[in-house]
Structure formats: C-alpha cells, structure tokens
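Intended use. Records such as the Transposase DDE domain-containing protein entry shown here are meant for training and evaluating sequence-to-structure methods. They are not intended to support clinical decisions.
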Amino acid sequence: MPKGIRILHISIGERNVTHFGGIFLVHQFCKKLRLKWHLQKKVLFHQRSSLYHPVELILAIIYALIAGIHRLNKTKILQGNGAFQQIVGLKNYPYSSSLRRFLKRVNPKTIQGINKVHDYLRLKMFYLPKPRTSLLFDFDSSVLTLYGKFIEGAEIGYNPRKRGARSYHPLLCFESHSRDFWHGILRPGNVYTSTGSVEFLKICLDKLPPYLYRIRLRADSGFFDHKFIELLEEANIGYCIVAKMTPPIKNKVWGLHYHRFKKDWAAAEFLYQPYRWKKPHRFVVIRRPLPEKDSEQLTLFTLKRYAYQVFVTNLPLKAEKVWYFYKPRATIEVLIRELKESYALGRIPTNNFHANQAYFSLLLFAYNIVNWFKRLCLPPRFQNAALETIRTEFLVLPARLVKTDNRNILKLPAEYISKQTLEHIIQKIEKIKSL
C-alpha cells in the first residue's frame, strides 16, 4: 500500500494557479457576446471607484455567481486566485466590501442599463442555434425567506415552509422551450402573487421578438385574475391557467359528465362567467382518484374519493390535452430551485432593497449566460444539465497559467476533461458571430 509523502515543504505565494480553470470557456463565450462592451455602453454609474470601473464590478459578481461563490463575503477565495483574475481580465479581484458598496450605490438607471443589455442579448440568443417562430411563457412566483434584521422590503407574508418568517416574493417568467429567463421583479414578501401581474405581463410582451406566429402561456392559480386573462385575450395569446376553487366552481365540478382518458383519470369541461368577468370562459376539469398518500399536491380541492384540478383556457384542445399541455410547466419549479440552490437566489447580500434588486438582476443575467453557453457550446448531453453538473464537468478544473515564448498557456489535468470535448467546446465558441 503506497504511503504519503513523509516530508513536505510548503511554499506560499504562487499566483498563477486556480481551481476554476474552466472559467476561461465562459469568458471566451462572453467575449463573443461582447458583454463588457455592451455594459460599458448602456450602464450609467457616476460614482466611480478609483480602483475599479463599474463594469469590472458587475463582471466580478457575474463570474463569481457562475463559479459557485454563493456569498459576497466568500469571494475572498478569488482575490489570491491570480490565474482566475488574468483569465477574466481583472487586475485584482475586488474585496467583498467593494462589491457590497457598489451594489448599495446602484440606482434605478444602473439597473435599467443592466437589464437593457440583458434584453438585447436574450433577443439575439432567441434565434440561436436556429430560427424560431413560437414562444411559450411559464409564469410563477417564489418565496425567498430572509434571516437578517432590518432588511428593506422583508415582510411577513405567505411562506408555507417558514411560517411567520420575513421574505421577498419575486415574480418570474421563463420561456419554456429554451429555458431562458425572460423577466422578473423583486417584491416585498407581503404582496399577493396577482399584485402587479398585469403590468408584469405587459413588460414580458414588450420584450417579444418579431415574427412570432404563436404565443402561449401557462400559470398557476396565483394568476387567476380577470384583468390578467383579458390582457392575454387582447394580445391573442393562448393560455392555460389553474383556476381558484371558488364555491361556484366547486358546485360546477360536482355535476359534470366525465370521460376517462388514462386509467382512472377523467376529464370534463364547462362554460362559466365568474363575477366581474366580461364573458363566459371555458373551464377544463381533471379528476383523479386519491392515492393513500397524496404527495403530488394536484389540487387543494378533494371530493369523496377524488382530487380535482380546474383550468381556464382558450386553447383549441380537447380537455385531456389541456392537462398534457400544462403538465410540463413543472419544469419552472426545477429552474427556480436551481436559482435558489446553485445561483444563491435565496442568499440576499445586503439590507438595502435597491442593492438587492441589482444583485437579483445580475444573478438572473448569470443564469441566462450559462443557459446560452450550454445551448450553443456544450455537447448535446449537457445542454439541459444543472449548473452543478456544468461546474463539476467544465468549470471547476485545477489549472496553471504559464507564459512561454510570449504565449499564455493554461495547463489542465487530463483526468478532468478530455481534449476532444474541450476542442469541441472551443470550436463551438469560435463559430459564434460576435454580437
């Protein structure tokens, strides 16, 4: 059995090593996006640090989020990471206090500039790798539990896991086919899901690319609101939204004629005009037998031996097809969980609401950069992989940066990534036209 080294001498001061060697792939991709150039053109920030340009601070936060640094005070690991700094084009990685101070000085115009760059790049990415003519929105809200004291906007609201805890309650929209983040807003924890949903939808529609022949939307019961649905119909958007189980709808469900469509599952439909709605709408009911232990939480409404879920929809589909259309919406819950766990959405960096809004925008920008990188550059088996998998396979790689004959060489161990895979990714990046 081999023994470890008996006598080991330690030398401290090596500057050209990193365990984020694969970050050069993301950086090369960002250069194709001309991310730094676009941010310099659009982001307005008048209070400049003597050490860092505002765009350098923005990129420092984005790269840290992608690398897996979940808290600003943990970015210290990147300050002595000389190879990382050289790879991403930073003279020195900023102190966490500099990053936090920058976020607190951010104003709404700065956030607006960041979002403009994000929107521009997302529009360009929408048509890659091939043109598309349809779009499917998934809407949802989430609860971000907050543990610090005196955090602006932290209010007590609906929080099923931490009852009575203060939280934020953001609204989020994703495009289902590409998994791109589309739009999001950070809100205090005591607002309802439907609060501001109409304005939120209008912003999502303002960001639509041209030449779409079909737009559809899926949402849960938090968006069951007549003004929200009226706007969808005015915009000629197909929708499927979970209905709230009001007493009139419960009464309708009881007396319907159901037809079976799989095993013991059955479907039915009816026309109904809820109070304050302008006209009758089509409602689809899905009935299924209650299992002994119901962990799926299909609906809160049960009657005798059955559980029911009701949708309001204008889609020209059979009743059971409406359910099949809605079912994949569960993916958005997976994406939100990834935002919380892998991108640290649940770890709010400051007690200032505007600073947290800025961080929220940068975090979602980082998510989309990784999503575009996966879609355009990685082998097919990794294009739907979670960020933790991407980090393990491609980003968290021990590396040494050396300079030989005026050539910068990044040395990677063969055991971590194959040369063939690495060349495949680099070729994919090189084929992308600069934006």
